[in-house]
Design brief:
The structure is a single chain. With 142 residues, the chain is an all-alpha fold. The protein has one domain. It contains six helices and no strands. Helix 2 packs antiparallel against helix 3 and helix 3 packs parallel to helix 6. The longest helix has 32 residues. The radius of gyration is 17 Å and the shape is elongated. The termini are far apart. The relative contact order is 0.12. The mean pLDDT is 83.
Amino acid sequence: MTVGSRLREVSAATFEDPGWTPVMRERMEAERARWVKQLDEATEWMVDNVEIYGLSWPTEILRTVIGQYVLHARAVMLSERQDDRKAELLVELTKPVWDVFAARLWQANPRRLPRAKQRLEELLAEIGAEADRQNPEVVPAA
């Protein structure tokens, strides 16, 4: 997700640079807002259309990985986290999925697929723990 990478590179903190004029700050804030909107629209599309592409993968593990990714990427965008943190999490979530699907790892080296799935699950657990720390009044379902 190159949009997430752009958000990470041009964080809100960079607006404090004394060399930036107020006009430049305003333009960059608008650009960042546009990038956030792109991430929101992309994760929305993925959720709305997962049946089209997610079920077409030949194995259960591939369908599980893409399903987990799509659901959690959207949840990150819907969360109350800061945009910079959302971008960071989306980039991290995308890495193991990209390794599997874009590099066709599942065909070239299928033994690495369980490791990618495990890494994704570890990231999802970390994201869940972070959310729990941010919302201590939420009690997990029994």
